[in-house]
Amino acid sequence: MLGYCTQMEFLDLVHAYIATSTIALARLKLELGNDFSDAKSPKGYPHQLADGSEYQFHGIGCRFTETSGIEVDFDFTPSGGANGFDAWRLWQFAKQLPVEYSNFQTLNSVETALKDAIAKHLVHRSKIGSDKLFYLT
Length: 137
Hints:
By secondary structure, this protein is α+β, with helices and mostly antiparallel strands. Helices cover 37% and strands 17% of the residues. It has three helices and six strands; from the N terminus they run αββββααββ. The strands form two sheets. Strands 1-2-3-4 form a four-stranded antiparallel sheet. A two-stranded antiparallel ribbon has the order 5-6. A hairpin with a 5-residue loop joins β1 (47-48) and β2. α2 crosses α3 (107-119). The longest helix is centred in the N-terminal third of the chain and has 29 residues, at 4-32.
């Protein structure tokens, strides 16, 4: 079991990831509209929004890079949101912010924190069979 401080740091990481991915999705919708089916390009071809941030659709998700260089990779949830997460995505996000998330610089550390959060019912796996993401409880 993780200590209280580490658990709070993990929840801070989750909240920051969700906020960043949700804002990225809102910016995409603002510029591209709600239907991305026409905007999706072949894999490997990033595009830019008017402000210079980049996006690249993939599978059921998107990699979005802010003009600051912070990148967030998210899968669209079954409801069309961007508030789901998994250990790998959290780790990729945390590695870009080593000072803020020093306890989560390895995939193992994020996986351990995620398992602890599941055990404490702070997060849960989606009930939808094809959705492999986790959500805040």
